[in-house]
Specification:
Number of helices: 8
Organism: Dyella flagellata
Number of strands: 9
Structural class: alpha/beta
CATH superfamily of the largest domain: Response regulator
CATH class of the largest domain: Alpha Beta
Helix content: 40-55%
CATH topology of the largest domain: Rossmann fold
Radius of gyration: 18 Å
CATH architecture of the largest domain: 3-Layer(aba) Sandwich
Keywords: DNA-binding, Phosphoprotein, Transcription, Transcription regulation
Order of helices and strands: HHEHEHEHEEEEHHHEE
GO molecular function, one term: DNA binding
Protein name: DNA-binding response regulator
InterPro entries: CheY-like_superfamily (IPR011006), OmpR/PhoB-type_DNA-bd (IPR001867), Sig_transdc_resp-reg_receiver (IPR001789), WalR-like (IPR039420), WH-like_DNA-bd_sf (IPR036388)
Amino acid sequence: MIAQAVLQALRDAAYAADWVRDGQAAMHVLSQHEHDAVLLDLGLPRKDGEAVLRQLRKHGDTVPVVVMTARDAIADRIAMLDLGADDYLVKPFDINELLARLRAVGRRAAGQATGKLSHGLLTLDPARHVACFDGVECELSAREYALLEALVLRRGSIVSRSTLETALYGWNEEVESNAIEFLIHRVRKKLGASVIKNVRGVGWTLGNAQPHDR
């Protein structure tokens, strides 16, 4: 029940979230797919969370890991942090605190000191899921925000369709062939035509949006 609630909250917050139920499955998917962060319960069957974390760090995997557990002893917290966890959250927890901690480890992984993401006249507020363009706030849907965030986090690079689909959709979600183009069209309509540039046959990148584009 906790996992289902967390999964839904993550998706409502515009994360593409995947869920596995045991440690061996976790190691398999983490070796096959790139993830931006891991929420790790310690009490997992087949391979417990401590063993998963130990194996990840032994193999040099630097993916941010937030431990979620009912173990509240100081010794347990110290042990997991020293083993390589980036944060430690004791159950029961408030989902908003979990999301805030997830944003914090994401900032650290990206080398950012502040909570906002910027590119030219465009600023994103991850805590509020609001885009600010040339000083004017704009409301975005969860998927529109996730699209912009994926591009801002990869600014300076051309982002492929498959990378965007992975960032926006979970494993079991059907993705229509024109879903990314539809989202880009909606974002451009709200923020300006030049905010996202298409590189034909390769993907998309952030443009240098200007006020007169709105």
